[in-house]
Structure formats: structure tokens, C-alpha cells
Amino acid sequence: MTMRYRKKNSIDILYIGKSRLHKNKANLIQTLHTVNALQNLNINVQLILPPIKKRLKVQERLHEIGVSQNLKVNTSRLLHPNWSFFNYNLFFYANKKKLMRQKNIYVRSPDLSLKLIKMKINHSLEIHNISELINKKNLYYITKAHKEHIIKWLFPISQKTSEKMIKSGANKNRICVVPSGVNCDLYKDIQELNPNKKEKLKLGYIGTISYSRGLGIIQKLSYCQLGDIHLVGIKEDSFEQTPGVKHTKFIPHSKIHFFYEDIDILLLPYQHNLPHVHSISPMKLFEGMAAGRIIIASNIPPIREVIRHNYTGILVDPENVQDWVNAITFLNKDRNFASMLAKNAKKHAQNYSWENRAYHISHSLKLL
After folding, report:
1. Cα→Cα distances 145→139, 152, 172, 191, Å
2. pTM value?
3. Domains parsed from the chain with CATH numbers
């Protein structure tokens, strides 16, 4: 392998984010794990986030999220949400010279990308919600900037999003799909599903609890008493607490494997009315696979990109509760098939490590 010559303290990627370090948001977790994985590939990343709350202990917070405590988090008060009213103008103008000199700027916020486009500063953009781009009428400007090479690379998190970007006029040769990832090592010691287990399989769901994410399906499943259900997440919509349903508001990401140890089946009942349903790449999907758990998920395009029906999981009609009931009932009866699904999912999860994600990003940017 040819070694790259790097000047001392040179920056390979300047990663600018809007995620607040104290918030328990998927975008923060994904950002930190991606930067951590890039640095593990010997890519020098300078991460800039909004200011940190005074009482927050950074090292403890990084440990809680499950990334290296050596990860350096730089902050700028000009990225505070209070400045978003001015489209972060002060941040960009205060750092214009530095931004102009930087070869690789990486953002995952369309707002930040649009500001860089206006200033004609080259950068790459990670696409998470194409529906939002369309609704806000910003897809045209993103696509135009990509064709003009102001946006060097587009990194959509699903193939479906990539197809929509290409259809809108983006250059397919500078698009790289980078789904979310998982730290497989965190789940390597979780006990495999026992096909001889006599009790009903335990069901689980993790994430925002809302009807657009399948709360209605979960409630109906609880009435059927197909097995105990463990829900983890903040309630966006209220629900009736029924017998056999356990609710936990929050589990630190570094301890999320304890949730998967407590369940046998991970439910992903995303509904068609979820605004970004065609752009999702949920971390919980890859976590459930890495943990060797059975995946029952809505049959929607982004999930079909990852789950092979009846091989690494079961795909069902999002809105047909009887399909969900039938799948769970079948798995309770045929434990050997259930065990096969879990083993295949665990093996397939290796393709979605954070390191693989970082590799595709850095290879596209010609840093490897």
C-alpha cells in the first residue's frame, strides 16, 4: 500500500455539525461514531459542533455514547441554535478563510450545505431526508451544486435516496451510499437465540414512540399477548400501558446491548406516513442484527436494501397487523427457523460496521 504524505497537523476532513453533545439524538450518535471510525483509519478529522453545556463532562459523555474518549470535540458558539435565525452567517463569515483553504469539508445538514453553496465553498454532503429537501424546494440547489462540483460528493444513507438524487440530475459517479453503522464488537458476547427455549419469544422496540413509527401495531400486538414487549424511547404519542408491556425512557448508547439481551425479536414497524420513510437507515436495525436478534420489519424500500426476506429477517405489510401476528406466531412455533434468521442477521451485520462506513467515505474522498 502506498503511504500518503501528510503535513504535520494537516486536516484531512473538516466535519461541521449542528448536533448538541448533550442531546440524545441519533444524528449525534451517528456523527461521533463516524468521526471515531474515520480517525481509526488514520484520517485526521477536525470536528466542530455547537457549544457544550458548562456542566457537561465531555469524556463521560463520549463514554456514554460508546466512542473513544480521546475523540476531540471542537466547538463554536456561532453554531448555537440561537444563531440559526441568521442562517449561521456569523460562523461562515468568521471562518471563511479557513473554509476556503480546506480541501474536504463534510456536513450532514442541508442548511449548512446551502450556506457553503452560496459562498461557493467546496464540500461534501450526507443526505438523510430527501423528503425535507423536496418539501423545502432545496433539492434543485443541492443537485445543481453537485453538477457544478461545489458539492464534491453526495453521501445518501439509502439506495432509494441515491436513486432519487440521480433522477433529479445529480452525477451518479460522485454518489456513494453510506448506511448507518454498528459497533459489532459491542454485541459479540450476547448469547445466541436458543431454539429450545420454551417460553414465548420476547418482543422489543427502541426509538421514538409514535404512531408513524408503528405504535398502533405495537399496541394491537400487546392485546394479542404473543409475548412480553419491551419499549425503549421517548413517547411522542401517548399509549395505554397494558400487561406484559415494559417501558424504559432511555438507555445510554454504550449500554444498549443490555436491551438486546432482554429481547428475542426486534420490531421495526415504520408506517408509510412517516415523513422520511424512504430515506431511513436506522441504527437499531444494524444493532439488532449484530446482536443476533430476529428482525421483523415493515416492507419498505430502505429496509429491503438491508433485510433479505426469510433469510436475515421477515418483511411484512406495515399496516396489516395480522401479518405481524402471523410472523410472530410462526417464529414461536418454528424455533429452528427463528434461530437461522438470527444467525444470518448477525453474520450480515459485519457489512455495516462503522469502519466500513468510514472506509467508503474516505475512499470516495481519495484519502485512502
Report:
1. 10, 9, 14, 49
2. 0.94
3. 13-181+353-364 (3.40.50.2000), 184-351 (3.40.50.2000)
